[in-house]
């Protein structure tokens, strides 16, 4: 019976990089033939089913045949997972009929991670959008691939992300608080209050705190619609953010 493995969502811990052993370049699968079809209800990924792959993974019905050494080298989670004892006669991950099933993620997200572990051109990176870098960050965080997690965070910090999505993402992964002080300021100081969809996105607790911070800013004359600006407006708004959202 296929086991179902959910990757942990703990924040990545520093990991020791080991040397990359020399090996032959992986060969792409030649494609499906009537005598070489995957199990019913499943499909092989066109780019990540290597002829010389030695571990089979499944995510949302998509099969990947990749290299255990590659996963182990970069991810301590995979490394520990492969070390778990298995019952005799039921070794998972050796065939398409008995793959290791990955849960708690979309196949597109795992595919995107593999695109960085197996770049089509050495050193190439086709990840460009904020949504893609968020996906890479989440996958790297799940599998504790520190170098990709750091790379994704650097790209997210250099990208413009609207206040609410950035705040929610940063809070979800417990990223540095100072990175979202400005997004909070933008929400507090903007003329209009949160829309219904924005309120639903942030949830009741955060909605109440945002409303409280907006009231404090208005009372101190710090918002554009309150009729004036404080000389130290940014510092005052930052103080309100810390008082409301990060009380000591």
TrEMBL record:
Q: What InterPro entries does UniProt report for this protein, alphabetically? A: BTB/POZ_dom (IPR000210), SKP1/BTB/POZ_sf (IPR011333)
- In this chain the BTB domain maps to 53-118
PROSITE patterns in the record, alphabetically?
BTB
The record, for Pfam families, names: BTB
Transmembrane intervals:
none
Q: Which CDD domains match?
A: BTB_POZ_ZBTB_KLHL-like
Q: Which residues form a coiled coil?
A: none
**What PANTHER family does its record include?**
BTB DOMAIN-CONTAINING PROTEIN, HELIX LOOP HELIX PROTEIN 21-RELATED
The name under which this protein is listed is BTB domain-containing protein
